Each structure stands twice: as structure tokens, then as C-alpha cells.
Amino acid sequence: DALADLERDTRPGRTADGSPVPLLANVGGVEDLDAVDCAGLEGVGLLRTEVLFLGRSAAPGLQEQVDAYRRVIETAGDRRVVIRTLDAGADKPLAFVTRRGEENPALGVRGFRTVRDDPELLRDQVLAIAQAARETGREVQVMAPMISTVQEAAQFAALARDCGITSVGVMVEVPAAALRTRDLLAEVDFVSIGTNDLAQYAMAADRLHGGLIDLLDTWQPAVLDLVATAARAGADAGRPVGVCGESAADPLMALVLVGLGAGSLSMSPAAAPAVRFAIARHTTDRCRAIAQAARGAVSPDGARAAALDLLDAHV
Ligand code: PEP
Ligand code: MG
User: Fold this and answer.
1) Is any atom of ligand 1 closer than 6 Å to the C-beta of 84?
2) Mean pLDDT across the stretch 6-35?
3) Complex ipTM, two decimals?
4) Are 50 and 92 in contact (CB under 8 A)?
5) Of 93 and 221, which is predicted with more confidence?
6) Which-ligand-closest: CA of 198?
7) Which helix (DSSP H) or strand (DSSP E) does residue 45 occupy?
8) Ligand at shortest distance from the CA of 146
9) Where along the chain is phosphoenolpyruvate bound (predicted)?
10) Nearest Cα residue to 51 out of 42, 43, 60
11) How far apart are CA 24 and CA 254, in angstroms?
12) CA distance 129 to 277
């Protein structure tokens, strides 16, 4: 039946006019890689390394980290792998990183900011990633979460390059970073938009707060504007801008993201068939028109309706 056909389609992501849009996976460990294979995804767009070490009371040693990253890289075979440095804090506390007693942990020392307290932890991690890459003979891409300023991006890029990483990126998940993606891209090779946190911080709505789901909607006009600004900066700089927030898993939003200029989409593997199908049915020009229509709306529902209006009759 049609659904089974959809699930069996494991071709690379492409628009109807043949522009490649690599479909990648958000994963938390090697056990998620089976699903990546099944879904025919073209790589790992986000390895959440904090998930590898959840529940640990002491920091993992260098060799343990090398082994963990090597397993993921090896299992990914010849696919692309983007490894994110520890994003501990707020909704993902790690006992060996997280500061206790912050009043607003989501606005506190999380993600890259932990380098302020513990620069060795980040350095060890990047060294371990670089060693795992060397041992497997593969190039990996490494990015830092929760970057807010150009100086942070530059600091991370210097550290990562010093450790031997050749493709260095940062997440764009803080509005300040989205507004200044142009400047970030002068320091790093690529950026990846994290729409989960970008919505949280743009809308000042706790991402874990069930009562604020309407504000956390990534179809919010202000969130779309921030994504558009970041994507435009990538196009202007000729540097890749991907999306790794869960909004990439929404097939209609995926069309908007492609239309705004996202070069790759990383999502939960289960979302891949529907996203692949949606993209394959629409040309890049159509995606641009859909994105433009969505951005013309003044509410999330209005944006969705405007996008839906422009879909091919078959979808
Ligand atoms: C995001 O914030 O969109 C993201 C991909 O990172 P995480 O969900 O791990 O915070
Ligand atoms: Mg995030």
C-alpha cells in the first residue's frame, strides 16, 4: 500500500527539480543508527553527546569518549556525521557539569557556556572526537550548542581547529545568534539552526512548559523571521545552513525551511519518509513561494494555512 511504499523509499532527499536536500538524523547514541539506516538517511546531522553520558556522576575519561564517538562514526559508515559538544544544563542536566542552584537554568550556564567553569572538559571532548575521527579515517563535523556571540564562536573554532577538527560549526538556537549568523559564519564553516531552543528563547516560553505550546510553535512569525535571517546569511556567505530542530520533522515546515534556504534537514529518523515525500513533490521555486506565503502571515495558524494553500493538489 501507499504507506509501505513511502517507508520503502530510501532515496536521498531531493526537491522535484532535483536539488539535493540531505536528510539527516538527530541521534543520541549508536543504538539510534539502525533507524538511520532503515530510513535511508544520509547521515547524522546531530549527535547529542550529552545523551551518551546521562546519569553519570563523573566525567567520562578521554579513552571512553574516543570509544563512544568511534562507535558512532564507524556505524555511520561513509555517511556524514555532525557531532555536537556537550549541551548540558537546563532540560539536560549532567551531574558532572550542571551547576546546582541556578534560578533560571535555561538562561544559565548551559551548552558552550560551561567552558567558563571547565575549559578542560570541552577540550578533552573535542580531542576525543578528533582522535576517533583519525582512528576511523573519517572526517567529522563538530559543532557547539548555545552560542550567543561571535566571540564564543571564534573561541570554539580556535579550540576545535587546534584539536585537529577541519569542519567546525555552531548551533543557531539563540535569537542573538540568528540575527548575527552573518558574523558567526565569518568564524565557522557551517551553522545548524536548532528550532527547539530558538522558539523557546525567541518567545520567552519554557520548552518544557506544556501550557505554552502555542507560543513554542515554530510557525510563529517571529521564529520564521529568525530562521529566514540565518538562512539568508548562509546563502550570502556561501556556507551551509542546516536545520536540526524538530521543526524539520514537520513535512509542511520542511518545505518552508527549504524555501528559506536550509541546505539540509536533520530530524528523528521516523519523520524521514514523510519529509522526503513532501520535498520530492515540490520544486525549489515552489518551496520559496510557500516560505514567502508563510512569512506573510501574522499567526502560526495563518502561516500554516498560507503554506497549505500553495501545495500541489496531490499532497
Ligand atoms: C534545538 O534546540 O533545536 C536542538 C536541536 O537542540 P536540543 O533539542 O538538543 O536542545
Ligand atoms: Mg538546543
Assistant:
1) no
2) 92
3) 0.99
4) yes
5) 221
6) 1
7) strand 43-48
8) 2
9) 48, 84, 196-197, 207
10) 60
11) 13
12) 34
d(CA 44, CA 94): 23
Q: For position 131, what pLDDT does the model report? A: 98
Q: How does residue 313 score in pLDDT terms, banded at 50, 70 and 90?
A: low
Cβ neighbours around 135 below 10 Å, total: 14
Binned at pLDDT 50, 70 and 90, residue 37 comes out as confident
- Ligand 1 atom with minimal separation from the 247 CA: 3
Check if 50 has its Cβ closer than 6 Å to any atom of ligand 1: no
Q: Identify the CA nearest to 244 among candidates 14, 39, 2, 22.
A: 22
Write down the pLDDT at residue 274: 95
List pLDDT tens digits, range 149-199: 999 999 999 999 999 999 999 999 999 999 999 999 999 999 999 999 999
Mean pLDDT of 85-111: 88
From 26, 196, 207, 247, give the residue whose CB has the most ligand 1 atoms within 8 Å, as the site to mutate. Answer: 196
First to last CA, the chain: 17
Please report the pLDDT score of residue 89 as a whole number: 81
According to the annotation, is 161 in a ligand binding site? Answer: no
Between the CA of 310 and the centroid of ligand 2 the distance, in Å, is: 31
Q: Which residues of 152-181 are buried (b: 16+ CB within 10 A; e: fewer)?
A: bbbbbbebbbebebebbbbbbbbbebbebb
Which pTM was predicted?
A: 0.96
C-alpha closest to that of 113 among 171, 27, 54: 171
Is 244 a known active-site residue?
Answer: yes
Percent of the chain at pLDDT > 70 equals 99
Verify whether ligand 1 is closer than 6 Å to residue 245 (CB atom). Answer: yes
Which cell is 100 given? 546546582
How far apart CA 26 and CA 72 sit, in angstroms, is: 12
